[in-house]
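Here we describe the complex-level prediction in full. Unlike the single-chain runs in Section 2.1, the two entities below were treated as one system.
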Amino acid sequence: GIQVEQSPPDLILQEGANSTLRCNFSDSVNNLQWFHQNPWGQLINLFYIPSGTKQNGRLSATTVATERYSLLYISSSQTTDSGVYFCAVGLFGNEKLTFGTGTRLTIIP
Amino acid sequence: DSGVTQTPKHLITATGQRVTLRCSPRSGDLSVYWYQQSLDQGLQFLIQYYNGEERAKGNILERFSAQQFPDLHSELNLSSLELGDSALYFCASSVDIGSGEQYFGPGTRLTVT
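The structure predicted for the assembly as a whole is:
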């Protein structure tokens, strides 16, 4: 099956710093989503981005489908950004999402 | 709020027991997915229903079963529970099949003692 790798596995930053999270995948995808899992366990949809670039406030994401990677940018980090960020992909003709192992982000005040 | 609801939020039960988790998809969504998040296996796809019919199966144990009802809500039944079934169970929904964003519910945290 498709492999999804996220890096780095852990990231500790001071409040106000910027960060870039990466997701590599091993096959052509029809769906790519970024999620934030907060400390209470909820999975929050951040972006649906099978290709191209999107921005939402301090967050933006870019997927280069031909090179099989996606990047999530977080600017001016806040403590509420702490949690685990997951990338998940779906293949053509198969809607199930395959998740990466996540990047655990800790923002220190 | 994604619009997907799941009940109950928490469930504590004993080994050998049977439980039912319930999910209501977003209004208008026809496809429902179940995922399991455990410490050792990460987030894994279990099963998908589309408009009442099973569409895809993942790593779902034979002790687990699911269905989607005419009103499109779905239930995941877990039987003969084992300690290793303790996990966070998520339901997600999407408008259709083929592509499209999946929206996740808040999850049901199952603890088997």
